[in-house]
Write a structure and sequence with these properties.
heterotrimer, A alpha/beta (503), B mainly alpha (429), C mainly alpha (309), A: 503 residues, alpha/beta, Rossmann fold, 3 domains, six-stranded mixed β-sheet, C: 309 residues, mainly alpha, ABC transporter involved in vitamin B12 uptake, BtuC, globular
């Protein structure tokens, strides 16, 4: 079977960090080829090179057995390579047709702008019908759901003539049902002759839909196997290296209600806004909030963290009272630990030192000197101790910039800061996003330990596996509300159903 | 290559030439044209041409290429990618900064020579006369006092991510307040000067309060609001010195002279007390920014206000404090100029300080001690500028031009600190 | 009555610099580049306009050369913000002070200061200009005033109804998406910066060649900054900017009319009016803000393709 896309000996570094080292990959026409690896393995970087977004430092690329060197994304498009990125590249205020027209100028079509738009609309409808999609080309992309936006991205690359399709973590933002639809559609495309490359960390998707799978780890290609012939355990071993002990959930000892939220509403409209959230988290339990992103999870997290925004309804923390109206200092007294989803946007300051990022958590207590004089030496000593006990790697000097830490270690630093006093309430929002299996396991262990020490843990995550493995009780969030709750052991099907029913 | 997918494409857009041609389009060298021919994210002019254009160019090359060699070697085309750097050792940073400043000075020197100053006179004026002539050096120090305060004011506001372009306006009101204390003879002789100082600081602070609140409460862009207040202040100043406060003795647009006890005394012969005052203020600023707890908070606000808010830093309070301190410093600078250099309220004493403050803060990277040093150098520039005006008829705005050139050079050099250029030599075949 | 007529007839003259400058800024900012250099481009345009008019005497050439000069200066700004990814606020401020210093220096050295301009005046549109009342106001203006509205129409059509305009807007809203679509973010921004600066230079030239008919250092007096505020006030819509410019023109035109009518106002307070109004307008906009506006999504942020999250 002829090779559609082949990469050999690729090397790529970012500011000294080696993302890819001697990576190779070959996809054939008519097949779905999965690129499997955990977070940080280099899969996205490799495919970004194939799509012309990054330039490699060494290595070769061949399209249809011709050597090529891409100067940019439009070069890739000329070679009929199309990539659907994890973070969509859509201009939100534009309509679907305008977005697709952006990259496909229809230079061979006569007429002005209006004529081209009309042509594009017709073409979109035709292609969508072929694929079984329902898309209104005149709708603004800002109003589309995540799954619909993804379909626009797929239409975009197909209308540009792509027959080598790269999909980067496409199911990360979809419900189980939407994922199924998407993956069977791309399987169809492969059967019609295209080469489809599926970048993913989900074993289940690989086993069900892929014809071949290449496993990557640490920037290297490990092996290419047939997923249908290879047992899951073997795939795990290839992906992760050696066995990683996943922490056992056990059972917590739930105590009194710590956090009570009743009918919480936020300003604004749309799926993101809170439309009356009600839930309770008790001490000594992990409440897992499942649901596809964009349904109000960030709003809820922000509300609990106390970020500005108008709120109605009740949010009470035991021992403090009304959490909405609490001042920053009262809030800090209550030892609420927050692990936000956006690490460098909200949890850490990359430009400041590890010591400062750690110390800011407690500096207000006077532990590091008075307002007149900051006792930096005490702060640094404390930070060093925390770094050691929370196993934060890569800290050569406690004064180095926090941005130099890898994802997993940055997360551990956040946890070190937040857990330095025994927290009463823990808010963890997508805590293992972007982390490899080992780091995820460590984070999970910390959450379980906090629960066992009596904290109330609210875990918000789009990763259903994470929720199911950690939570004592599971809630499903959709459209700004809790639509279902489950105890453990919960049925994955039922949870997935609840997500879909209200989508 | 299967043709099934193209059938699906109702637009039938042209793609790469069919594989039968076996010519690798990718090895056509991408032109290094662009805004500087360097950045990857810049121009890829050739690649934007229609596929047909590329194909025909390639076929021509291919036929001749095939005739010559069996294996195509891509033409040497070194391209660069731009990467963001996380950290660069401080000595490299200092070196890059030094080169930038020297480049700026060289360009300025070239302009001055083109404007008619002989090269050897340049060195004489700028270095010898300014720093090694006793009288001029005293003038430089004298000039440095308000310059240091303005530089500190700018730095502190910038640390809170507040573009305080209203330093001149705050300076004006500082001088006006001090003059008011003198004109209305408020307070006994012994405390007159400290009262003027306090009034100046308060006035500057109050003139900065408006834009600060507007930004914090209503998100009004502070660049415009502070600049507009500058214009209001300067017009008000003219209104006073041409009107109610005009000196009736000589009918010039300035206030009556301050009395002897209303002027900043000399510490000893030749050294005005303005200078130790400025140094004291610099120390206070250093304490605020580097020693106190507020300085840590300010660092977090500067790096990422949203994150600072999330971890419990009092962002609004810190921002407001920083801006008010900045205004007060500018007000005191106005007092120093009025009660020190001028001895009265004049109509254009503030010219050039606004941008000087920005320049100082920018070069010193908002560090108070570095800002003090840079301020002295800028003061030297001012003094030289005045003598250039007197002896060579070069307008004083030359100083502004030189400052702008230096800022541009340093800003450009920052690119090399924050980014790394990597040559990418791809080997297509 | 005469006062009212004169006021209305003079307002377009005062409004044109604001209008053209705002249009230029909108064009640049639609590509995602925050342009604070307006005051600088205006000064350069004003200076070169006067110099060219003194040398050649032909208004068309003077205006063209002024636009060219501003465009050339903007190349420096483009180099800084596109290639070298300098903070756009610092770059804009530096350009303004660079232009202030340079224009003042050149004006003095080349002896262009305070030289009166001839050869630019109103062009009455034939029979239309004779219509009572309106004829004098609408059809007795100079050529640039007549051309302003067509220029606005052209630029607006370009931005909203052309493929290139679509791409320009994409570059301003989401440069990552534009880049992935194969557009060169750098080239589009360069084009927008240069074209925008040319328009701002034109507004400056109009000021010196048609309005005041001479050059004095710093003669723009903050109009560039007011134009920046105007663009925010207009929420990046050309027509709202034109309306705002008319408002400012009317206010400025009112001042001499009131003086002529004998109304006594403290001179310097009157001079404060444009700045106070700008401030007031910015506050009003902020108070009335419902949240949704046309601010280009990526305004002010430099674009790096290989940025690693």
């Amino acid at each position: 079977m002829p090779v559609a896309l082949e990469l050999t000996g690729i090397r790529k570094t970012f500011d000294g960090f080696v993302a890819l080292d001697d990576a190779s990959f070959a996809a054939h026409w008519g097949q779905v080829h999965a690129l499997l690896g955990e977070n940080g393995a280099g899969k996205s970087s490799l495919m970004n090179i194939a799509a012309g977004l990054y330039a490699p430092e060494a290595g070769r690329m061949m399209v249809d057995d011709n050597p090529v060197r891409l100067a940019g994304p439009s070069d890739a498009a000329k070679h009929r390579i199309g990539m659907v990125h994890q973070h969509f590249k859509l201009v939100r205020p534009f309509t679907v047709a305008e977005n697709i027209l952006l990259g496909n100028p229809l230079s061979h079509v006569d007429g002005g702008f209006r004529a081209k738009l009309r042509q594009m609309e017709t073409a979109i409808r035709a292609m969508a019908a072929e694929l079984g999609f329902e898309i209104d080309p005149l709708k603004r992309t800002a109003l589309l759901s995540v799954a619909e936006q993804q379909r626009v991205e797929i239409l975009k690359v197909l209308l540009a003539g792509a027959n080598i399709l790269i999909l980067d973590e496409p199911t990360a933002v979809l419900t189980d049902a939407e994922s199924e639809r998407l993956l069977s559609t791309v399987q169809q495309l492969a059967r019609r002759g295209s080469a489809v490359i599926l970048v993913t960390h989900k074993m289940a998707d690989v086993k069900t839909y892929a014809d071949q799978v290449t496993v990557m780890r640490g920037g290297r290609t490990i092996k290419t196997v047939d997923p249908k012939q290879t047992p899951a355990a073997e795939l795990v071993r290839l992906t992760v290296g050696e066995a990683v002990t996943t922490p056992k959930r056990g059972t917590g000892t739930p105590g009194e209600v710590r956090l009570a939220i009743r009918d919480l509403k936020s300003a604004g409209s749309g799926r993101q806004a809170l439309a009356g959230v009600s839930l309770e988290v008790r001490a000594g339990e992990i409440y897992g909030l499942a649901g596809v992103g964009g349904n109000g999870q960030s709003e809820l997290a922000n509300a609990i963290m106390g970020l500005p925004g108008a709120l109605e309804g009740e949010m009470r923390l035991e021992g403090l009272g009304d959490l909405k109206a609490a001042s920053t200092s009262a809030r800090r007294e209550m030892h609420i630990a927050t692990i936000p989803a956006d690490r460098y946007g909200v949890a850490l300051s990359g430009a400041l030192s590890v010591a400062e990022n750690f110390g800011i958590g407690q500096v207000h207590t006077g532990r590091y000197g008075s307002a007149w004089r900051l006792a930096s030496s005490t702060m640094e000593a404390d930070a060093k101790a925390a770094v050691a006990s929370f196993d934060v790697q890569g800290v050569r000097s406690i004064r180095q910039k926090a941005a130099l830490l890898s994802g997993g270690n940055a997360q551990k630093l956040v946890i070190a800061r937040e857990f330095s006093k025994q927290p009463k309430l823990v808010l963890a929002h997508s805590p293992s996003r972007g982390l490899d299996v080992r780091a995820s396991a460590e984070v999970h262990a910390r959450l379980l330990a906090a629960r066992d020490a009596g904290a109330a843990v609210l875990l918000i995550s789009e990763d259903l596996d994470e929720v199911m493995s950690l939570a004592d009780r599971i809630g499903v969030m959709a459209r700004g509300r809790i639509v279902a709750e489950f105890g453990q052991p919960a049925e994955r099907q039922a949870i997935g159903q609840a997500m879909v029913d209200h989508a | 290559m299967p043709e099934l997918v193209p059938d699906m494409n109702p637009l039938a857009l042209p793609g790469a030439p069919p594989s039968a041609a076996a010519t690798p389009p990718g090895t056509v060298p991408s032109p290094d044209v662009g805004p500087s021919g360097v950045a990857d994210a810049g121009a890829t002019g050739g690649a934007d041409e229609g596929a047909n254009g590329v194909a025909s160019a390639v076929t021509n090359e291919a036929t001749s290429g095939v005739a010559r060699t069996a294996r195509r070697v891509p033409l040497a085309s070194r391209r660069f990618t731009v990467e963001i750097r996380q950290q660069l050792a401080w000595h490299w940073q200092a070196l890059i900064l030094a080169i930038a400043i020297l480049a700026g000075m060289a360009i300025s020197a070239a302009i001055l020579i083109a404007a008619g100053i002989a090269p050897k006179d340049l060195l004489n004026e700028f270095v010898m006369q300014t720093f090694f002539d006793k009288q001029n050096f005293e003038a430089v120090l004298f000039q440095a006092a308000p310059m240091i305060m303005i530089g500190l004011g700018a730095s502190i506001a910038f640390r809170a991510r507040f573009w305080n372009l209203g330093l001149e306006g705050q300076m004006i009101f500082g001088a006006i307040a001090a003059t008011a204390i003198s004109l209305y003879e408020i307070g006994p002789e012994t405390t007159r000067l400290p009262l003027m100082f306090a009034a100046a600081a308060s006035a500057g602070l109050l003139w900065a309060l408006g834009p600060a609140l507007l930004k914090l409460r209503l998100s009004v862009n502070e660049i415009i609001s502070t600049l507009m207040l500058n214009y209001l202040a300067s017009n008000f100043l003219l209104h006073l010195v041409y009107g109610a406060w005009k000196d009736t003795k000589d009918n010039f647009p300035h206030s009556p002279q301050f009395r002897a006890f209303e002027r900043l005394p000399d510490v000893f012969a030749g050294l005005s007390s303005a200078i130790p005052l400025a140094l004291f203020v610099a120390l206070l600023a250093w304490w605020f920014v580097d020693i106190s707890r507020a300085g840590l908070y300010l660092r977090f606000v500067n790096a990422n206000p949203r994150m600072a808010d999330a971890v419990g830093v009092p962002v609004r309070k810190m921002t407001l404090t920083a801006v008010l301190v900045s205004g007060a410093l500018a007000g005191v600078a106005g007092f120093v100029v009025a009660a020190g250099q001028e001895g009265r309220l004049t109509q254009s004493f503030y010219t050039g300080y606004g941008f000087s403050g920005i320049l100082i803060a920018f070069l010193a990277r908002n560090n108070p001690l570095a800002a003090s040093v840079v301020a002295i150098l800028i003061a030297g520039l001012f003094v030289t500028g005045r003598s250039l005006q007197v002896f060579y008829q070069i307008p004083f705005s030359m100083v502004q031009l030189i400052q702008a050139i230096i800022v541009i050079c340093v800003a450009c050099s920052d690119f090399f600190i924050r980014h790394r250029l990597r040559p990418v030599v791809g080997r297509g075949a | 009555m005469d006062v009212l007529l004169n006021w209305l007839a003079n307002s377009p003259d005062f409004a044109v610099p604001y209008a053209l400058a705002a249009l230029g800024l909108i064009l640049t900012e639609r590509s995602g580049v925050l342009s604070l250099g307006a005051e600088g481009y205006m000064l350069i345009g004003a200076l070169v306009g006067v110099g060219a008019q003194l040398a050649f005497g032909a208004a068309g050439i003077s205006l063209f050369l002024a636009m060219l000069a501003a465009a050339v200066v903007s190349l420096l700004f483009a180099l800084m913000v596109i290639t070298l990814r300098v903070n756009q606020v610092i770059a804009g401020l530096a350009i303004v002070f660079f232009c202030q210093g340079l224009s003042s220096l050149l004006g003095t050295l080349l002896n262009w200061t305070n030289q009166a301009i001839i050869g630019t005046g109103a062009v009455p549109l034939g029979a239309l200009a004779d219509i009572p009342l309106f004829g004098h106001i609408l059809f007795h203006q100079n050529i640039v005033v007549y051309l302003t509205v067509p220029v606005f129409i052209l630029v607006t059509l370009f931005i909203n109804r052309s493929t290139t305009g679509l791409r320009l807007r994409a570059v301003g809203e989401n440069p990552q998406a534009a880049d992935a679509a194969g557009l060169s973010v750098g080239w589009y921004r360069l084009g927008a910066i240069v074209a925008g600066a040319a328009l701002v230079g034109l507004s400056g030239a109009y000021l010196s060649v048609y309005s005041t008919k001479l050059w004095v250092a710093g003669m723009t007096g903050g109009r560039g900054w007011i134009a920046v505020g105007l663009v925010i006030f207009a929420r990046w819509s050309p027509w709202r900017a034109l309306a705002g410019a008319l408002l400012f023109g009317c206010i400025e035109a009112l001042i001499p009319q009131l003086a002529a009518a004998g109304v006594k106002l403290p001179q310097y307070f009157v001079l404060m009016t444009p700045y106070a109004v700008t401030l007031g307008v910015m506050v009003w906009v902020a108070l009335a803000k419902s949240g949704a506006d046309n601010e280009p999504g990526a305004l002010g942020q430099p674009f790096v393709r290989e940025e690693r999250g």
